[in-house]
Specification:
alpha/beta; 2 domains
């Protein structure tokens, strides 16, 4: 099969039939073998009934339905597990992403050799809040990851099948799939300017909470990618440093006390100095950080994925 098209759905009953007809028209005109995998993320409208009806008429239309709303990352993860095409393309179900981009995206994966191609909605028709938060996070993600993409969170993306089978997305991590792919060893990541349409039906599902979630997700990805296999390297280093700083402050107070006593001066009580309590607090925090790293290492050593590595090629094995 040439392409699997994974589409998360959440209360989009007005658009999915029109989107399906559009995809079928594009793929049929280019003689592209395809499957459309709809993942109904707990819709409360008639979206699933429409998906079922389309599946009965066209075997290329497939669907999975969640019992409740789990989020876009869960929907994409499930769709990736079901995909079998050489190229996997994701798009939103609200008709803002154009299926006319499918042939060119496939070409960039198959002929140009990209592992992942992310769409860039250069001209957007989204609300101001969504545009503002996207610009902020895209700049932050470019700076922290070294991946030169303008739109990390664009729903329209193309992947080599191996990529989607090698990464795991959860929580709200769908915003940073290119970073996950890079950390998994897929370095050839490209970008394509794509057509973006104004929303035709319904209202956007995004709110102000994406501002906080996006920031926390970026921190999570940065931590996991650098210290997921060795948490002691972070917590142990910080804990040791803080403990030594606190110990040095306490040592200074002790030496000063001895100097006063040696010269027969009235020595102030060590506990009357604010440095004593600061030093004690820093040493306690350092000890807790070190113990956190130690516990993280114990958990990691007992994880079933502690020696899970992606293999690219084999010879005689």
């Amino acid at each position: 099969m040439d392409v699997s098209i994974v589409i998360p759905v959440y209360n989009e009953e007005e658009s999915i039939q029109e989107l399906t007809d559009w995809i079928v028209r594009v793929c049929s005109s280019r003689i592209i073998s395809f499957e459309i995998i709809y993942v109904d993320d707990g819709s409360s409208d008639s979206s699933w009934d429409i998906i079922q009806s389309m599946g009965e008429k066209n075997q290329a239309v497939k669907g999975v339905r969640f019992r409740r709303n789990y989020g876009k990352a869960a929907a994409l993860h499930t769709g990736f597990a079901k995909a079998s095409g050489d190229v996997v393309i994701t798009m939103d179900s609200d008709l803002q992403d154009s299926p006319d981009e499918i042939p060119e995206l496939m070409k960039m994966i198959r002929k140009d050799g990209y592992d992942l191609v992310s769409g860039w909605k250069k001209k957007r028709y989204d609300p101001f809040v969504k545009r503002f938060t996207s610009k902020f996070y895209n700049r932050t993600a470019r700076w922290s990851s070294g991946i030169n993409l303008h739109d990390f969170n664009c729903g329209l993306k193309a992947y080599r099948l191996e990529v989607v089978k090698s990464i795991e997305i959860f929580g709200e991590m769908h915003r940073y799939i290119p970073i996950l792919a890079k950390e998994a060893g897929f370095r050839k990541i490209g970008e394509k300017v794509v057509e973006h349409h104004a929303r035709k039906y319904g209202i956007t599902k995004y709110g102000l909470d994406r501002f906080i979630k996006g920031y926390l997700d970026l921190l999570t990805i940065g931590f996991i990618s650098r210290f997921g296999k060795s948490p002691m390297h972070l917590f142990g280093s910080l804990g040791s440093l803080m403990f030594l700083i606190g110990f040095a402050m306490a040592g200074y107070l002790g030496i000063r006390k001895l100097v006063f006593v040696y010269h027969h001066f009235k020595a102030p009580l060590v506990t009357t100095s604010p440095f004593f309590f600061i030093a004690l607090t820093v040493m306690v925090i350092g000890s807790f950080l070190f113990l956190t790293g130690f516990l993280g290492e114990l958990i990691n050593r007992n994880s079933s994925e502690r020696n899970s590595y992606l293999v690219k090629d084999r010879v005689n094995l």
